[in-house]
Give the backbone structure.
Amino acid sequence: MWLQVSCELAFDIAEATPFVLMLRPRSGMQQWIAREEYRLEPSVPVFEFTDDFGNLCQRLIAPTGAFSVRTSAEVMTGDHVDQAFGAPFIEIQNLPDNVLSCLLPSRYCESDRFHQMATEITAGQQPGYDQVAAIVTWLRNTISYRPGSSDIPVSAAEVNSRQVGVCRDFAHLGIALCRGLSIPARMVVGYLYGLEPMELHAWFEAYVGNRWYTFDATQAELKGGYVAVGYGRDAADVAIYNQFGPAVYPVAQTVHVERIRG
């Protein structure tokens, strides 16, 4: 399907502030960026780089006063999300080098604390995709999904204790459980067509059967319409913006996703 996606952030800047933004989706195996637009008001110099996870990041200094960032893109993405029940677990010695970091505990995914729990949740499942699918089912049946209930990242252990969370929290706990079984897992932030309420969304991917597969416990069923913007080990790696100095928060944030003709 073809989608038009956009995000607009508006700030009121008290003093010149360095920003690192992550708002440009890139073409990849499951999406193609046909056209995009990036606007800054007022216009300031921008320097782009690619981070350790391949994400496109933009560095700038926001001037004092009203400052806004608006990005939009026309994206071709799948009508359906690939699923592969039976896809096997890949032994550690056979994993690609760039996947290995997604096995380790990270700031918000304390996977070293979840081996026993993950083993119990996936008891009787074939190692690999089926184990991750069982984790997703457990998340959906155990953790209450409440959009807007949290505005700061919390760790997988905290989510498990609270038993409630936003999409980012579901991804953190799913990632920690996967890594607890030595299945590489990473966080993804981007857009989802038809999401209610509409906002930027987070889900996770697991590496089984020699490729990454999408998993999202916040949705009743996997469907098409995902547009990835950033990949990382957890929320610390995929913030759509980081600013440095006195805290700055958006005075307005608008996210829009609509289906268009290709």
